[in-house]
Amino acid sequence: MTWCPYFLARYTITNAHIVVYSYHYLLDPKIAEVVSKELTKTSVVVFDEAHNI
Questions:
Q1: pLDDT higher than threshold 80 for residue 51
Q2: What does the angle CA 51 – CA 26 – CA 48 come to, to the nearest 5 degrees?
Q3: pLDDT digits (tens, 9 = 90+) for 31-50
């Protein structure tokens, strides 16, 4: 069975303790609606490269 990388990543996020990805995925409303919706309200987000925000 071959896994689709997109759906594998979405599944993995729900079970991960730490997720590292570009801040664009969290701050761009169009992308965040799809990619970041699995993050909970208790998630901690650390921005590297925050000077670019």
A1: no
A2: 30
A3: 888 777 777 777 777 777 76
Please say whether the dihedral angle defined by the alpha carbons of residues 21, 11, 18 and 29, taken in this order, is positive or negative.
Answer: positive
- SS3 percent helix, strand, coil of the chain, rounded to 5, is 45, 0, 55
Question: Which two structure tokens, joined as six digits, stand for 13?
Answer: 């996020």
Residue with tokens 């664009």: 24
What kind and span of H or E run contains 1?
Answer: none
Other beta carbons within 10 angstroms of residue 22's beta carbon come to 12
| Overall pTM surpassing 0.90 (yes/no) | no
- Which residues fall within 8 angstroms of residue 14, CB to CB, at 6 or more apart? 38
